[in-house]
Amino acid sequence: MITAERKPFDEIYAMTEGHDKVLVAGCDTCVAICLTGGEKEAEILASEISIKAKEEGRELTVEHTAAIRQCEWEYLDMIADEVDQAPLVLSMGCGIGIQSMAEKFAPKQVMPAVNTNMLGMPQEHAVWLERCAACGECVIGETAGICPVVRCSKSLMNGPCGGSHAGLCEVVGPEGEETECAWALIWERLKAQGREELMFANRPPKNWSKSSSGGPRKMVREEAKPT
Amino acid sequence: MSEALTLKAGSNLEKVLSAGDFAVTGECGPPKSADGSVIEKKAKMLAGYVDAVNVTDNQTAVVRVSSMASAYLAQQSGVEAVMQMTCRDRNRLAMQADILGASALGVKNILCLTGDHIGFGNHPQAKGVHDMDSISLIRMYKDMRDEKRFQSGEEMDVAPQLYIGCAENPFGDPFEFRALRLKKKVVAGADFVQTQCIFNVPKFKRWMEEVRALGLHQEIKILAGITPIKSAGMANYMKKFVPGMDVPQEIIDRIAGKEKGEAQQAEGKKLAVEMIKELAEVEGVSGIHIMAVEWEAAVPEIVEAAGLMPRPAIA
């Protein structure tokens, strides 16, 4: 799924400056599952903004809503009336949802209330890990189902660098958290599959033109177009 | 010299190794300012005591004088350079452009590296490039040299003449993959390898056993990496904070057993000399790479004491 984290409250609240009415719009798909931007979280944020405005003696009407999916026009039609009545929308959808709202309701101002961070999965309750870079050319069939593009800190394609130690990457997170070395995982799982020879062959440089380096991507399925 | 016909770049380092002499390389870290005299000073300190000197490429992801400019300045100061090139700061266009430029400036030895992660350095918010990895970088330079082709397949008129090096860390994990990783570099086209600093000699010897079992010592020149320890504090720091380092406690204890200052420095140099002599006896080791971090002045004394002087004078 796509994961996102709510922006710091002060940053969000500052976006409301100069407005007397705002709509907080959640999205009930990915960002709801990662407990960041679903209808419940939209309601909580709306309350927080309301309380802060009251404390400041500010006249500010704060409504909230949620689309089933902000990234599809049909679902945005369902919340169009609420959006129409608000001069400012704070979207809690992912980057795709926010942009869909901004395009659908242009020139209305749609602001991001979250930072979209990755394509990941909940490894355990309330812990999400990145799993895919959407690079456009999947190699995990040869790397035991573990993505080296996004799970190796250097996106190496030919095995671990010299910084792999006891199964851990040389790179630690901002809070000092340790990261597994993707290539150590790949090596162990390939061995368990009896396919470790896949790591002996030299893999050529990756074709990044299929990734974001090739410019904004577009997918067309001719066979699926209405006739 | 009969090897003349088969030399790839004709660098001094290549000639020394091809002649079967035990090679000595050093290292020079460029400064964090536009002061080229720092490189000239370090290069002059090492000239005559090493066959070539590595110039690092934004080492530990900290901005410094570029390795290309430093390589040029070192060579102007009388010592041949091994220009380091990391995949962290350049995409394939820049890595090819820089090697063409370096070659045009007379640089013949190149060391292909992945590079320390950008998060370790002084610009942790920068975008790490990693368009390619060190193994595909080796292959790209080999194809430029031998096939006169860019990575795209396009042809060029004048190929860069390169002696292509790589690094390997015998102390990285998974250990059982480390010799196999060197093999990948040999297959990609590496001519020589300089290892990570060796402090754990028994483990290095185990790695060399695997390297020999794969026959790699006959296909690539192996230079064992040595870092003279200046103080017990430095040894502790390397053990705890430098990725990929394996510093046994007894080494730290040996240095710490001496008085801080000159006595620890003397013990560090003595240890380096002992290790060089021991590593030189390991079958398949063709030379030594001395990485005296911000202690280049110690190198002449170590090389002398290890019995490696005079360096071969090869035309």
> Rounded to an integer, what's the Rg of chain A over CA atoms?
22 Å
Integer count of domains of chain A: 2
Indicate the percent of residues in helices of chain B: 40-55%
| Rg calc of chain B | 19 Å
Q: So what's the overall shape of chain A?
A: elongated
Relevant terms:
heterodimer; A: 227 residues; alpha/beta; Rossmann fold; 2 domains; four-stranded parallel β-sheet; three-stranded antiparallel β-sheet; 19% strand; elongated; B: 315 residues; TIM Barrel; eight-stranded parallel barrel
Structure description:
- The complex is a heterodimer of chains A (227) and B (315).
- By secondary structure, chain A is an alpha/beta fold.
- Chain A is 28% helix and 19% strand.
- Chain A folds into two domains: 2-117, Rossmann fold, CATH 3.40.50; 133-214, no CATH class.
- Chain A contains eight helices and seven strands.
- Chain A has a four-stranded parallel β-sheet, sandwiched between helices.
- Chain A is elongated, with a radius of gyration of 22 Å.
- Chain B starts with 11 loop residues before the first helix and ends in a 10-residue tail after the last helix.
- In chain B, 40% of the residues lie in helices and 14% in strands.
- Chain B has a single domain (2-305), classed as TIM Barrel (Alpha-Beta Barrel).
- By secondary structure, chain B is α/β, with parallel strands linked by helices.
- In chain B, helix 2 packs across helix 3 and helix 5 runs parallel beside helix 6.
- The model of chain B has no long low-confidence stretch (mean pLDDT 95).
- Chain B has an eight-stranded parallel beta barrel with strand order 1-2-3-4-5-6-7-8, surrounded by seven helices.
- Chain B contains eleven helices and eight strands.
- The A-B interface holds A 153-167, 170-171, 181, 184, 187-188, 199-200, 202-206, 208 and B 87-88, 92, 114-117, 119-120, 128, 130-136, 139-140, 151, 167-169, 171-174, 177, 180-181, 183-184, 187-188, 196, 243-244.
